[in-house]
């Protein structure tokens, strides 16, 4: 066995040898890179201006391994080896890490984390825009425990505000910027239990209209805005895409009425979106799908714009305000792809978010704009094995497992794709997993 391992290692070294580029064999290549990195850090003047604008990019579920794998993919999409690629996110001068636990759980969800980074208050799992005295799903505990978000603070300060997401606009991350809800799942009134309604709780979609006056709203989620059985304009034959509301309200029409003194546009497709002139538009509501948007890799560019295009339109509308703006841009489906064990989708979503960040930097001035890129939590997503330099990030390790079968470079610790033995997960009910195991017995 040892001999076999040694032979495999030797083979790997030989193959890898052929990939290394000549300039990288020269120590000066690395030393000059290090000097430049150090010099640019030393040359950097601290920007002490008060930010007029805030551009806030949130990669939902975009942990460190997702970030690394997406960097490699971004380079490989440009026919580079990939590992050395500099993402737009990599160019930011300051970096930090945060503890992401929630008040009641070791591992947080997007609702608890959004309340922490948008409202400044750690809270419980599944609740949005309320403090930890509120309990998941219990309307009575919501009242009096509301906490407001930076989006509202910006509006109160006279700035224009917007949300751009790739999920439904009622989803946890964007919803926390404008709603208070004991449950992240109360998308429309049909999702709010009768008892909660009796206790005075309202759904997230109605709060989109009734709370902070938001200038730009872009994402998906139109089915939560229209009365039950209303046909979707894009998928009229699809029953599941039809309106969900039981209170008979059409929130899209109500929104247009509320804004009729201003230039307000509602659009649901790319043609109408492209026709929106940011120079003359005060308000924009764009809902491109009944629920979440399609993954970037599956997007129909004739029907739906990319996150790069939506980010650009939002900034161009918001930046007309001389007092500045706050914009939340969420790459929301990185997380959803990870939940399904779909690394391909998650990484393409991350690359698209990085391109949107580049667009944001291009359209704003660093002297007056604070741009932040964050993740809310990570996923059980790993990079492992010893793939060669430049090997497809979505490929397999050149080594085999002890079962002599190949394995992928990217793996999930749970969900679809986690370890299956004899058709089932290992039965660990009687195993004390806190013990120090001298051998792999699991
Ligand atoms: C990468 O290479 C492929 C195949 O040769 C080519 O079709 C594609 O246009 C290239 N992409 C870039 C960004 O250069
Ligand atoms: C929400 O706003 C609409 C329009 O201004 C108003 O008719 C309605 O009563 C409000 N609802 C709540 C729950 O505040
Ligand atoms: C799988 O099933 C076989 C045959 O029933 C059994 O001998 C073996 O121990 C099982 N392996 C695991 C890991 O449960
Ligand atoms: C599991 O193992 C740890 C470490 O040896 C020990 O402290 C703990 O009491 C064990 N738990 C149970 C339920 O046996």
UniProtKB/TrEMBL annotation:
<dbReference type="InterPro" id="IPR001952">
    <property type="entry name" value="Alkaline_phosphatase"/>
</dbReference>
<feature type="binding site">
    <location>
        <position position="173"/>
    </location>
    <ligand>
        <name>Mg(2+)</name>
    </ligand>
</feature>
<keyword id="KW-0460">Magnesium</keyword>
<feature type="binding site">
    <location>
        <position position="171"/>
    </location>
    <ligand>
        <name>Mg(2+)</name>
    </ligand>
</feature>
<keyword id="KW-0862">Zinc</keyword>
<keyword id="KW-0732">Signal</keyword>
<feature type="binding site">
    <location>
        <position position="60"/>
    </location>
    <ligand>
        <name>Mg(2+)</name>
    </ligand>
</feature>
<protein>
    <recommendedName>
        <fullName>Alkaline phosphatase</fullName>
        <ecNumber>3.1.3.1</ecNumber>
    </recommendedName>
</protein>
<dbReference type="GO" id="GO:0005886">
    <property type="term" value="C:plasma membrane"/>
</dbReference>
<keyword id="KW-0472">Membrane</keyword>
<keyword id="KW-0449">Lipoprotein</keyword>
<feature type="binding site">
    <location>
        <position position="335"/>
    </location>
    <ligand>
        <name>Zn(2+)</name>
    </ligand>
</feature>
<feature type="binding site">
    <location>
        <position position="377"/>
    </location>
    <ligand>
        <name>Zn(2+)</name>
    </ligand>
</feature>
<feature type="binding site">
    <location>
        <position position="330"/>
    </location>
    <ligand>
        <name>Mg(2+)</name>
    </ligand>
</feature>
<keyword id="KW-0479">Metal-binding</keyword>
<dbReference type="GO" id="GO:0098552">
    <property type="term" value="C:side of membrane"/>
</dbReference>
<dbReference type="GO" id="GO:0046872">
    <property type="term" value="F:metal ion binding"/>
</dbReference>
<comment type="similarity">
    <text>Belongs to the alkaline phosphatase family.</text>
</comment>
<keyword id="KW-1003">Cell membrane</keyword>
<feature type="binding site">
    <location>
        <position position="339"/>
    </location>
    <ligand>
        <name>Zn(2+)</name>
    </ligand>
</feature>
<dbReference type="GO" id="GO:0004035">
    <property type="term" value="F:alkaline phosphatase activity"/>
</dbReference>
<keyword id="KW-0336">GPI-anchor</keyword>
<comment type="subunit">
    <text>Homodimer.</text>
</comment>
<feature type="signal peptide">
    <location>
        <begin position="1"/>
        <end position="22"/>
    </location>
</feature>
<keyword id="KW-0378">Hydrolase</keyword>
<keyword id="KW-0325">Glycoprotein</keyword>
<dbReference type="Pfam" id="PF00245">
    <property type="entry name" value="Alk_phosphatase"/>
</dbReference>
<dbReference type="InterPro" id="IPR018299">
    <property type="entry name" value="Alkaline_phosphatase_AS"/>
</dbReference>
<dbReference type="InterPro" id="IPR017850">
    <property type="entry name" value="Alkaline_phosphatase_core_sf"/>
</dbReference>
<feature type="binding site">
    <location>
        <position position="376"/>
    </location>
    <ligand>
        <name>Zn(2+)</name>
    </ligand>
</feature>
<feature type="binding site">
    <location>
        <position position="60"/>
    </location>
    <ligand>
        <name>Zn(2+)</name>
    </ligand>
</feature>
<feature type="active site" description="Phosphoserine intermediate">
    <location>
        <position position="110"/>
    </location>
</feature>
